[in-house]
Structure formats: C-alpha cells, structure tokens
Design a protein that fits this description.
The complex is a heterodimer. Chain A is of the alpha+beta class. Chain A is globular and about 80 Å long. Chain A folds into two domains: about 110 residues, Rieske Iron-sulfur Protein (3-layer Sandwich), CATH 2.102.10; about 230 residues, Naphthalene 1,2-dioxygenase Alpha Subunit, Chain A, domain 1. Chain A contains twelve helices and 19 strands. By secondary structure, chain B is mainly β. Chain B has one domain: Nuclear Transport Factor 2, Chain: A (Roll), CATH 3.10.450.50. Chain B has one helix and five strands. Chain B starts with 10 loop residues before the first helix and ends in a 7-residue tail after the last strand. Classes of the chains: A alpha+beta, B mainly beta. Chains A and B meet through strand 12, helix 7, helix 10 and helix 11 of A and helix 1 and strand 5 of B. Strand 12 of chain A pairs parallel with strand 5 of chain B, so a sheet runs across the interface. The complex binds FE2/S2 (inorganic) cluster (FES) and fe (ii) ion.
Amino acid sequence: MMPVAWPKEGVRRIPFAVYSRPEIFESEQTAIFRGPIWHFLGLEAQIPDVGMYVLAQVGETPVIVVREAEGKVNALVNRCSHKGTPLAYVPQGKVSRFLCIYHNWCFGLNGKMISAAFERGVAGKGGMAETFKKEEHGLQKLRVHICNGLIFGTLNDDTPPFEEYVGADLIANIKRVCGKPLRILGQYSQRLPSNWKLYIENVKDPYHASILHAFNGVMKQDRLTMEGGIVMGSRGWSHISYSKLSTDRGDAVYKGKELRSAEVTAYGHGLRDTSMTDIWDDFGDGISMTIQTIFPNFVLQQLRNCLAVRTIVPKGTHEAELRWIAFGYDDDDERKLKGRLKQANMMGPAGLIAMEDGMIGGLVQKGIAGDLDKAAVVEMGGHGIEPIPGSRVSEGSVRGFWTGYRALMGL
Amino acid sequence: MPLSIMLCDNRAMLYDRVEAIEKANVFEPHYYRHILSDSRTVGDSPDGIRAETSFMCVRTMLDGRMTLFAAGVFHDEIVSENGACRFRSRTVVLDASQVDTLIAIPL
Ligand code: FES
Ligand SMILES: [Fe+2]
C-alpha cells in the first residue's frame, strides 16, 4: 500500500509526499526505472569505434553501453553474474571484452559469458560444478533503440516500441536536432540538492523560464510573449516547448511591475559582448528554442545554437545528479564551433540561464518539509494535459509528466 | 574536449558575467575561501610567463554550512605592463567534472 493518497483533484495537485518519502523512492525504482519506459543511455558519437563503451545509470541499475560492431550497440547491466561486481568502473573506455577483476569471469561485448578462471580447476582438481553452464550466465541485457544517434534502453519486456512511446512529433524534433553526425563538445554534471522529479518538472514548466531566470527575460532569450507553444508526446507524458526569437511582442508585459526580470535594467541596452547574441538558424525554421523531454528523465535542448542532452539520475529522496553532454555537428566550421562554446555560457552549473534550475528544487524541498500531506497547485492553463495552441502560458506539460507517473506508480 | 563550464574570453564578456551575477542570477548567497599552493612558472609566453597554481576552494553559506567546493589548478598567463604584473588569462581546470548545485561566482 502506497503511503500517499493522490488528491481527488487529480494531476492539478501534486502531493508533497512524492518528493520526500523513502517508500516512494523505492517503488519508483521498480515501477518507473525498471518499468515500461525508454531511458536515455548515451550518444552513438560517444562510442564511434568497436569496443568503446560508456557507463549509464537507469535508476539505481548500473549499465554499460558498448559498441559491439559497426551499427550494433549493446546495453548490458554492469554486474558480473558471479557475485555482482561491476565489470567496468571507469566511466568510458575501449575494451575487447569485459573481464571481472574479482575472479576473472569474462564476457563478450554482447554480454555472453566466455570463460571463468580455473573453470576446470588446477591439475584436474577443483573447478566449476558439473551443473554450471556458461550459456546460462551471460550479462543481463537491455532492449536498445537508437534514434538519430541517441541511444535508449529499457529493462522491461512490456515497454511499447519507441515510436509509440514517444510520438511522431517528438521523433520529428529529435531528427531535426540530431539528424546529422554529432560532434561531442564536452560533458559535466551537477549534484542537485533535491528529488529528481523537482528537476524534470522544472524543465517541463515554461511558466517559470522568464521569471526565475531574469537573464532569460531581459536577454529576450525566452519570453512567454514570443510566438511558441507546447507539443505533447504520446499520452502527454513527454513534451516539446518551443519559441521563435524574432516574434517577441512582450516589452509591455515584461516592463510591468510584477515581474522581477523587469527590474533588471542592466541589460536594457543588451549585452556588452555579442558572443552569445551572434546566432544563426541551425534548422532553417526560425525556431530559436526547443526543450524536449522524454518521460521520465531525459531532456534534449536547443537554446539558440547551444545544443545538449541532459539526464537526471535519482540518488535518493533529496539528491539527484544532472548529467549534461553538449554537442555540435561534425560539419561545424570554426565560427559555429566557437559560437556554440560561447553560447554554452547559458547552460550547465554556471549557466546564465540554467544556474537557478540547479538550486530551485532544493529550495522547494526545504519549503515543503514538515507538511508532506499538503500538495502543490498546478492549474496554469487549466486542469488537463491538452496543449493550448500557440501558447506556453500553461503547466499542461507538468501535468502530463504526472499523468505518466501516476499511471506507472498506480497512485 | 573544448567545452567549459564558464567561458569569458574578452573584457566585455567578463563585464556581462559580473553584471549577471550581481543583477540577474538568483542563488543562495555564499562566499569562497581559496587556499593556494605549489605556484610555479612553467615557461615563457609571447609577452610574459606562464604559471600554474594549485587551489582548494571552501564554500561557506550564510548559515555557516561549509563545503570543500572545488579543487584544481590555475593555468595563468602573466604579463608585465608599466612595471606591474597583470593576468592576461586564467584557465581554471577542476579536478572533478561534477559540481555541487551551481557555480555562480567564478572560481
Ligand atoms: S564477482 Fe566477477 S568474477 Fe567473481
Ligand atoms: Fe529553468
């Protein structure tokens, strides 16, 4: 029995208990992370050669993503089938097979067991029991789906096909952003002092973007007065929020007294330096910002020309890790490469726009402490998850996340 | 890999960053204490010298919470101008690629 009763209002209320109760964190591991979801594991560009691998984390389950052959990527649970030792503990590398350091059990890049040390004993004595069959002790594999170089995996047999899980509009945006060979520019991570769901909710919430992030509003990077909208993925669980830079009509609204960003007059004249405003249209569609999520914890980001993927790794009720990988394209010239690196000042732990997102969840969790039987109010844009055409003044995408969450958690 | 957590490669960008921290960005107030060691020169640069210094940085929040926030090395280019030494550039290389919560104030 779950320790949380969802309020009768439905997804326009979020019971505080889901962020803080250990029992909820436990059930999420089974119902969500080992449940019927597609989890982002890495980029193909991270493992271009045979034998290259990166480590990933699906909830608490450690995973190795390895290239077995050209065009073939495997995802294996990073756990020796003897006693459970991780087979790889360096975050990325290149190997010809996985050899466990503890007792030298050996596995191929496809996860099949190759050998065990002293399998036949020494000088005819000892050795594995008659009953031991190597074919039965391969590594646990995840089902893998690759979409334009993004590698996803699932631990569950019932997960629907990726296209069905995500929806055609979202697949189209992945193709738009990742449709040609990617060049990885770098990666880093942040420790978030909050529950993982407070971060994904924040990503799915266009309401806060130009308010909490004063830099955003005054830089006219992302204001709700720009032309834009929210596109919902399958069942409303995943989403895209987008806007067009050239269409802002918002000075009157943003100069209104009620918005903190309007008080920040320093940038009235714009930035002194043009490195971050010297932008180009990567996709020829005038869309300057897209933030896409895939339920439960993946983000594909296009902030002008600043491109990245983010994954949220839950670590405990009050801690998560946010992993970033920034990328450009193989065919970027010097100007584009430099431009992306400079625009990267907007993202990450020191991001002029992103930095507040790293701490706001922690503040929320401090605020809700002591009253976990109460709930958050999420009614911007109505009660449901239907997008409002042409508008981002809505928390519909946040309610969409909770729709998926409730379905899997049985709450 | 070329990505940095923070990148300012001209004076105007430095101004913008400082102004953002002072006026736009929101974060829990805190301050840093750097402990420096192992400074050494590592060679000449076109107009001066290159030097390295190891550092540890303790972050203290207003309520007194202290964290060993970062450790790493500064790669500096130092030039002499009118008899004074000035930094031409400073590259901060962190030992870890993970940051606790956020970096508002440059290290
Ligand atoms: S735990 Fe891996 S060989 Fe024993
Ligand atoms: Fe945000």
